[in-house]
Task: structure prediction
Amino acid sequence: MKFLYVITMSIALVNVLVADRYYQEVVKTNEHIKIVGVQLWVVIRFLICLGRYTFEEMVIMLTVPELAVRNSLRDINCQIDMRTEIKGLVGIRAPLINKDNFDWSVDLSFYGNKRREITLRAIKHLIRGQQRGEIAEFKNFSHTCYLIALFRSAKFPDSYVTSVNVDTDENCCIETINMTKTVYKSFGGIIWQMGENKSPKEPIADQF
Result:
């Protein structure tokens, strides 16, 4: 019994240490994103178009880091990968943060809100550019659909998107963690949210 107790305690300690590591990586990535500022749209464009990450990973990287599984090595790597992509794409290194400078009393939801403030501005910038035809990569509507899903996840983090696909009629179909479904479609380059009767309900620009 003592042997099993030691194993159980050891596993619990490892989980705590990994969760603490995740907290640190989120804070480091937030500081990096803050420095990048308006250039973040460049990173988001490539994250979507290069296809290196699943949509679930992009959501953790960009919109809801506080809702990740804190003892997941994959989710820790999402934060590290985000900083790697920033450095590679815009040439800005992550700031060095001393471990003693972390304020452990601040909840991860605070950092999630701060991250969304920046990423939402960058996502809106990309959507505006897409609708003006200024971003060649988003002429592929599947890429635009991912962008719309990230927009919804950043604007409504408690109902972030978990499923994204473009159907055969070029409808962008997204489904949230709460099982709600929303459809968007492009008409003449203008993206509209569709109503229940399959007619245009509201342009996405009005949702900004």
Observations:
- The chain has one domain: 2-147.
